[in-house]
Amino acid sequence: MDVISSGDVTQCENKKALGRLLSLVPIGVILPGANVLKSPKRYHESVLPLRVLLFAAILFAAIPAQSATVLVLRFHNNSQYSDLNWVGESISGTLEQEYGQAGQIALDRDARANGMQRLSLNPDANFTKATMIRLGRSLDAEYLVFGTYDIKLTPGSSALKDSSIQLTAHFIDLRKLHNGPDISEAGKLADLSRFKEHLAWESLKYIDPQSAPPLDRFMAPRKLTRLEAEESYTRGLLATDYDQRQKWLLLAANLDSGFIAPAYELGRLYLDRKDYRQAVRWLLRVPPADPRYPDARFYLGLSAYGVADFTSATKYFREVSKIMPLNEVYNNLAAAEDQLNQPAALADFRRALDGDPNDPVYLFNLGAALLRSNSFDEAVKRLDAASDSAPSDREIQDLLARAQDRVVNPPGGKPLAPARLKLKLDTVAFRQLKAMLQPKG
User: Fold this and answer.
1) From CA 297, how far away is CA 315, in angstroms rounded?
2) Residue 146: which region, alpha, beta or left (left: phi > 0; alpha: psi -120 to 50)?
3) What is the number of structural domains in the chain?
4) Are strands 76-77 and 143-152 parallel, antiparallel or unpaired?
5) Which of 25, 230, 236, 301 could form a disulfide with 316 if both were Cys (CB 3.0 to 4.6 A apart)?
6) Quick one: which of 109, 122, 206, 123 has its CA closest to 428?
7) Long-range CB contacts (< 8 A, 24+ apart) of 359-363?
8) Which residues span the domain enclosing 31?
9) Full-prediction pTM beyond 0.85?
10) How many CA atoms lie within 13 A of 133 on its CB side?
């Protein structure tokens, strides 16, 4: 049996979180009037506190205060109907969505899956409480939400949509290793959307009472989704085959045009398949109030870049940079700017590298941009560092040779090599870091 005790909560978590913080803070950021020591050995020590302070200010402005990190596990199906396993994923998905909408940091399906993979856990297993706590701790969650549901057919009916459902959610405060309340909902399966929303509202009153709006406003009719659309969407999420995933998501979107979740997932799906115009079509449906909006704009930037619409790509990436000033955003913004021959490209490539000085993508992109501007000495330095990370990369070697030979490039020319983009946006880590810096009330 898994065993965990309160003694497992150590200073290691703070060190790990601080390490993530420093990886995001641009090294070159200095507050106005700062007295920076000239010695390279002392530079990092003198600039580090200023980096943290300035980045903290950015964090406070970008994310609502008092956020808690919440891990929601798939609810377990206690009924005899295995075909209704999708309901458990649907419940957890709605809770994640509503927590995010209320300003909390809801770990998404990818984060949950990565955590389970690291701990070699089977996603379909019925975990012990100790295992769930260990998983939550590994993901730096502050609250753990899990639960069960049971479904029974109405007497005289054979249709599952006419059945009744009873679901119960359990909560653990992982900071104090203290059990929270048990919250139950019951009624017709056809009203699943209403029960999930009410459960989200009740649980928000426990996680953060100040973030729970009045019930009548929270339960707005526009937030309720048809059962058939919820089932199709969730089956699409769970599908491992691309064609099946696309079929289910399209069905969900067509069944309920106001259901934003399938539009976002379809945009991601088409982007993965390099169908960029379709990706743009679906991602544009995600409204600013949706917690997935920064992610959607980031993937819109990638989609626009994919069809060589660099002006739109620049617009989308710049918008995201004002919400989530992350290294990958600055890198992609600079790549789009570089295609437009905008002077800001070089500065944004530097911002990306400042946040992660050893990333080979950032080293390559900055080195190529420096070479294009005939800054040969620094180009050699950056490309040589990139070469150390990827010694067999022919493109890096070719550019490095040009820089070493000081081959002059005419002004206003095209990029010497295609910029390398970052394809994922880690907004969860950003939100967690903000929550770590924000004093709790």
Assistant:
1) 9
2) beta
3) 2
4) parallel
5) 301
6) 109
7) 359/327, 360/386, 360/389, 360/390, 361/331, 361/420, 361/422, 362/327, 362/331, 363/389
8) 6-62
9) no
10) 18
